[in-house]
């Protein structure tokens, strides 16, 4: 079985081929440019690969509502050329195979639930904290879509007492993404995340905002695992800071031993590491193939 996988990020695209065990055999990566240039590269990669299905985890917002006239489109992005772009339709015209189509973070959540840190569980949340903040929601064995799709990065947090940074989200200013994504860290401290020392006060503030979101998400969704990925989470000192702050926020209210006694195994990095996104797309492709059989 040969499944095509596309991790479509706002900064870079990764395309690969994998199998039903989640093993990626081949992959390439290139910068995200104007959609025609980018999709040309995707199409030429898959041209001779004879895939049985293709899974796509895409940056968004995207239209994932079955039956919608713009199903498969990237919708309101400010990225040049991508607004209202028929991503899925462009691929369908080239390759007549089943497609899995979802957000990048939903794909990663699904990949983690299939082969990674949430394997065997029926729920998890997948956060990416990178250029933006996105949250994929997997619940009762299914990805959550609803009205459009969850946009957990734009929830409004309570402010840290020592933080007067205005926030940089173009829509909301000081939403979670505007306060805690990689570019917000850089704008607040005038240094990139990887340039800040591990004991810099930036990390306690970063953990404060992320823990607040995770606390709310635990209370709302009751996930069995919370997985934190993305470039900013390369700062592994954030994990203990976040775990402690989540426990403090919850204050014993959620009486699950996963949180009270084993939080180190509850809030974790992706089990699939850097391949979480691509494996997630692979899992979507595989699921699409199975539902058409
Ligand atoms: P993207 O979100 O575009 O897919 P990343 O997840 O790598 O890509 O996120 C990029 C953001 O993460 C940038 O703002 C960058 O400064 C930040 N970042 C990347 N690596 C690190 C690191 N090691 N430590 C802290 N921040 C990082
Ligand atoms: Zn926002």
TrEMBL record:
What keywords were assigned to this record?
ATP-binding, Carbohydrate metabolism, Kinase, Magnesium, Metal-binding, Nucleotide-binding, Transferase, Zinc
Q: What class of enzyme is it?
A: transferase
Protein name per Swiss-Prot or TrEMBL: fructokinase
Which cofactor(s) does the record list? Mg(2+)
Task: Name the Gene Ontology molecular function terms of this record.
Answer: ATP binding; fructokinase activity; metal ion binding
What domain of life?
Answer: Bacteria
- InterPro entries registered for this protein in UniProt: ATPase_NBD, Carb_Metab_Reg_Kinase/Isom, ROK, ROK_cs
Which transformation does this protein catalyse, written as a reaction?
D-fructose + ATP = D-fructose 6-phosphate + ADP + H(+)
- Which PANTHER family does the UniProt entry name for this protein? FRUCTOKINASE (PTHR42742:SF3), TRANSCRIPTIONAL REPRESSOR MPRA (PTHR42742)
EC number(s) stated in the UniProt entry for this protein: 2.7.1.4
Question: What family name appears in the similarity comment?
Answer: Belongs to the ROK (NagC/XylR) family.
């Amino acid at each position: 079985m040969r499944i095509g996988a596309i991790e479509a990020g706002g900064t870079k695209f990764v395309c690969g081929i994998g199998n039903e065990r989640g093993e990626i055999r081949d992959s390439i990566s290139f910068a995200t440019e104007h959609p025609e240039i980018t999709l040309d590269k995707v199409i030429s990669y898959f041209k001779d690969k004879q895939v049985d299905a293709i899974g796509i985890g895409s940056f968004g917002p995207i239209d994932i509502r079955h039956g919608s006239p713009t199903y498969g489109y990237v919708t309101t992005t400010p990225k040049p050329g991508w607004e209202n772009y028929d991503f899925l339709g462009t691929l369908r015209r080239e390759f007549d195979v089943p497609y899995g189509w979802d957000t990048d973070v939903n794909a990663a959540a699904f990949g983690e639930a299939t082969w990674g840190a949430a394997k065997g569980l029926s729920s998890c949340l997948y956060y990416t904290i990178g250029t933006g903040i996105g949250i994929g929601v997997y619940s009762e064995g299914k990805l959550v879509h609803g009205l459009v799709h969850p946009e957990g990065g734009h929830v409004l947090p309570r402010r840290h007492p020592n933080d007067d940074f205005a926030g940089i989200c173009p829509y909301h200013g000081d939403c979670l993404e505007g306060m805690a994504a990689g570019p917000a860290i850089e704008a607040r401290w005038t240094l990139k995340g990887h340039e800040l020392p591990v004991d810099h006060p930036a990390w306690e503030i970063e953990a404060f905002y992320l823990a607040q979101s995770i606390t709310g998400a635990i209370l709302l969704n009751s996930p069995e695992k919370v997985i934190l990925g993305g470039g900013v989470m390369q700062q592994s000192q954030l994990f203990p800071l976040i775990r402690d702050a989540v426990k403090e926020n919850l204050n014993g209210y959620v009486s699950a031993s996963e949180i009270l006694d084993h939080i180190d195994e509850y809030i974790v990095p992706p089990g699939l590491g850097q391949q979480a996104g691509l494996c997630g797309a692979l899992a979507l492709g595989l699921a699409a193939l199975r539902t058409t059989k």
